[in-house]
Write a structure and sequence with these properties.
Layout lengths: L12 H26 L7 H7 L4 H49 L11
C-alpha cells in the first residue's frame, strides 16, 4: 500500500506497524459504525457502510465511485459472457456449415459421415 502511493519498496518495520495499526483502527471503527446503523442485523449491508461515512465527503464520494465501478465491471463481465457464448455458438454453426460444404464438395453422402 505504501509503495503504491510512492513510498519506499522496502519500508521500515516500525512504519509498517504504525500503518497497520491505523488501518486496523479505521476499519474497526467503520465496521462498528456500520453495525450500529444495521441495528438488528448481524451483518451490515453496503448502505450501512455508506451511512457510516456520510459525514466524511471524500470517503463517501470514493465509496460511491467504487460501487459504481463495481457495477460497471459486473456489467462488462456479463456482456463478455454473453458475447463469448454467442461467439461459441457462431463458431459451432460455422464449423457445421463448413463440414456440410466439405461433404457436398467431396461428394459425401450428406449424412455428415465421410466415406474413405
Amino acid at each position: 500500500m505504501m509503495y503504491g502511493f510512492g513510498g519506499d519498496p522496502e519500508p521500515e518495520d516500525a512504519t509498517l506497524d504504525c500503518l497497520e495499526g491505523l488501518v486496523v483502527e479505521f476499519v474497526g471503527d467503520l465496521a462498528k459504525r456500520a453495525t450500529a446503523a444495521a441495528r438488528q442485523r448481524a451483518k451490515p449491508k453496503v448502505s450501512e457502510y455508506l451511512y457510516a461515512v456520510r459525514n466524511r465527503p471524500r470517503q463517501w464520494a470514493r465509496a460511491r465511485e467504487l460501487l459504481l465501478l463495481k457495477k460497471e465491471i459486473e456489467a462488462a463481465k456479463k456482456a463478455s459472457r454473453v458475447s463469448e457464448a454467442g461467439a461459441e455458438e457462431d463458431l459451432d454453426e460455422y464449423e457445421r456449415a463448413a463440414d456440410a460444404e466439405d461433404n457436398i464438395l467431396l461428394g459425401g453422402g450428406g449424412d455428415g459421415e465421410d466415406e474413405l
